[in-house]
Amino acid sequence: MLSIQNLHVSIEGKPILKGISLEVKPGEIHAIMGPNGSGKSTLATVLAGRDLFEVTEGKITYMGKDLTEMAPEDRAREGIFLGFQYPVEIPGVSIVNFMKTAVNEQRKYRGKEPLSASDFLKFMREKKDLVEFDSQLTNRSVNEGFSGGEKKKNEIFQMAMLNPRLSILDETDSGLDIDALRIVARGVNKLRSKDNATIVITHYQRLLDYIIPDYVHVLYDGKIVRSSGKELAMELEEKGYDWIRQEYAGNGR
Amino acid sequence: MEKEQDKLLREVTSGEYKYGFYTDIEMDTIPPGLSEEVIRKISLLKGEPGFMLDFRLKAFRHWQKMKMPGWAHLKIPEIDFNSIIYYAAPRKKKSPSNLDEVDPELLETFNKLGIPLDEQKRLTGVAVDAVMDSVSVKTTFRETLAELGIIFCSFSDAVREHPDLVKKYMGSVVPYTDNFFAALNSAVFSDGSFCYIPKGVRCPMELSTYFRINASNTGQFERTLIVAEEDSYVSYLEGCTAPMRDENQLHAAIVEIVAMKGAEVKYSTVQNWYPGDKLGRGGIYNFVTKRGICRGERAKISWTQVETGSAITWKYPSCILQGDYSVGEFYSVAVTNNFQQADTGTKMIHIGKNTKSTVVSKGISAGKSNNSYRGLVKVLKNAQNARNFSQCDSLLLGDRCGAHTFPHLEVDNQSAIVEHEATTSRIGEDQIFYCNQRGISTEDAIGLIVNGYVREVINKLPMEFAVEAQKLLQISLEGSVG
Ligand SMILES: Nc1ncnc2c1ncn2[C@@H]1O[C@H](COP(=O)(O)OP(=O)(O)OP(=O)(O)O)[C@@H](O)[C@H]1O
Ligand SMILES: [Mg+2]
After folding, report:
1. Going by CA atoms, what residue is nearest to atom 7 of ligand 1?
2. Which of A65, A100, B63, B244 is deepest in the core (most CB within 10 A)?
3. What CA–CA distance (Å, rounded) separates B71 from B68?
4. A41 lines ligand 1 (CB under 6 A)
5. How far is A141 from chain B (nearest CA, A)?
């Protein structure tokens, strides 16, 4: 589904990602961990198509297409979803209106008729229930005045509405209380299928107790320095990143 | 950062003006220039009674002593008042009493603008006075309205047919001494609309005037006078467009509203004069004086404006709240893009007791434009318990445009409650990207955000025009952010 080969990315001439390769197949869950500033969000954002970042080398293919040439809205319509680490507030635009536009744009792209107002509301109610999203929130402006946790839940709600093929969840777990964490994880698991894949970026192995990954990757200084099964997350939780840092520094010399 | 911003801006600023065509039509014109002689000629051509010529000449002599106002936050190039044509009228035999007598070219022009003058084809419930350059070409539904005692006609017809009403109210709200452009208008105005709603009558349809500048080199100077007798109601709408030209053209209008005891007048404007091109060439200079007076108790005047056009906009629709418990409202959306400049706002003058005013102003600036809100809330000594609430918001697209707020308060009564709130926000790349990531294109994202931002004002427009206004906003901002 997604194939990243030797990806190099810079911002304002400063290299951030320094040769990342990653294969994601349908049905898989990949976890990406790594210290602050290692480039996790950069990777997620580049996949979503933000042109602030410059791809200087390497290739990204998604569903057989060259992703780097595709506009961000088209990537979204092709089924890529990014759950933002810092969801943006859009004052004056209600979630209902926002999601109606998003859903119908996706339908248009796929050659389907737009949903009628009543069908849309029904669809929205279903998804809201599925991910246990607070009804009161959908009438408010997108993320405006939302608490940190509410913003994250809103990301999962939008993910449910758009039913993506590839979801990238950038620290969706941070800022969530225990109950909310469970709710979010339950949502992700319910939306899981053999046809879609998920990349979860997290600092805490706790989330991975609920969303069980097939692979865990450690991103360090713009490179994937280690990939392994779920047990790697445990190891990191226990030991922190120092040993990776040392190992990496050693290898580097 | 920089790069993306630039791209956004380039895209937004590529919107196109739909009404830029020109109609080739036979015209009667007075050669360019301004003098007593020209004014006498205008008055003669219009067959006016003596009191009108006197009014014009007094205004002209006063204007000659005045200077262009310099206080607005605008860069106004020098205007050569002697190079302007003050009278240009589509040639016609006489005032058309039915459609067959109107030049088909003219009908076609208004059809193209989406303003069919054929009563059968009109949106039901809207009567139109269509003004092209210096004269009114047709007023629809005159007879239907006359049955209720409502007078709705061109200003010229009103001067001829209802001289007493014109004499009584013209200049009573905006005297010719008011300001430079009001004096100029009073001297040379050539037509406009007149509307009179008798006591206790609720006007059953929207009344509207559609202004079109067509001829080149020509200024448009029109006046509108609305008189609402006790306990009457009328909703009035004004729209305007002009051809695309490299030269600037002057539009200096006056609107006067008189609302008696218990009367309500709602005045809405969708201003879409040609704004000039992307490089700032051409466009209309729009200098307008609009003012209403609530003469009696519980009278209400409400201004709603959506200003998207003009190279320069200078207008401050105002309310004089004389009657006790009278109410004034001002709802405004002003959009500037490319090199457009707008200095607009309102004055609320509280004279009567328990008078109330509300001001909601939403400025949107993009490109290299400048957008200013200028407001005055004045509470006089006897205006016991006066209340004002003002909300002035600015929305910026990109970082090369400017937004400014100049709120002035003059409160001479201790019991008054005056509140002012202001916000400035920017449509950020991160908001746009967030929308993109959900499959929403940049254009649609701006549309969503802008429509959300202006909703409170758009909701005040008559239904038929709210949709138009929304589309217009989107078009004027096309290309402004990523
Ligand atoms: N817009 C930007 N301008 C300049 N530098 C940036 C920008 N965005 C990211 N960076 C830099 O790129 C590096 C990687 O940042 P990124 O946000 O990808 O880290 P992260 O792994 O997600 O960290 P965290 O765990 O704190 O979320 C950091 O050094 C950061 O300062
Ligand atoms: Mg991050």
Report:
1. A11
2. B63
3. 9
4. yes
5. 9
ipTM above 0.90, yes or no: yes
Whose CA is closest to atom 4 on ligand 1?
A11
For the residues of B253-296, what is the DSSP string, one character each? EEEEEEE-TT-EEEEEEEE------TTS--EEEEEEEEEEEE-S
Structure token pair of residue A219: 């991103």
**Sign for the pseudo-dihedral over CA of A67, A68, A73, A76:** positive
Tens of pLDDT, residues B418-439: 999 999 988 888 999 999 999 9
Per residue in B95-120, pLDDT (tens digit) is 555 666 667 776 777 776 666 676 65
Handedness of CA A223, A3, A203, A84 (dihedral sign): positive
- Average pLDDT score, chain B: 85
Nearest to A76 among B436, B444, B453 (CB): B436
- Cα distance between residue B285 and residue B288, in whole Å: 10
Chain B residues near residue A72 by CB distance under 8 angstroms? 433, 436-437
Residue nearest to atom 6 of ligand 1 (CA): A11
Amino acid at B93: K
Range of lowest pLDDT (B208-217, B341-350, B449-458) = B208-217
**What span, in angstroms and rounded, lies between the C-alpha atoms of B129 and B27?**
19
Asked if A81's CB is within 8 angstroms of B452's CB, the reply is: no
Q: How far is CA B203 from the centre of its chain?
A: 21
Residue B3 has pLDDT above 50, yes or no: no
Residues of A within an 8 Å Cβ radius of B: 12, 48-52, 71-73, 75-77, 81-82, 84, 87-94, 97-99, 101-102, 105-106, 109, 141, 158, 162
Length of chain B: 482
B49 pLDDT above the threshold of 80: yes
| Residue numbers in B near A82 (CB within 8 A) | 437
Which ligand 1 atom lies nearest to the CA of residue A39? Answer: 18
Counting Cβ atoms within 10 Å, is residue A116 exposed (0-12), middle (13-18) or buried (19+)? exposed
Beta-bridged to residue A83, according to DSSP, are A169
Class of domain A2-87+145-248: alpha beta
Q: Give the position, in ligand 1's atom list, of the atom nearest the Cα of A34.
A: 21
Tell how far the Cα of B132 is from the centroid of ligand 1, in angstroms. 59
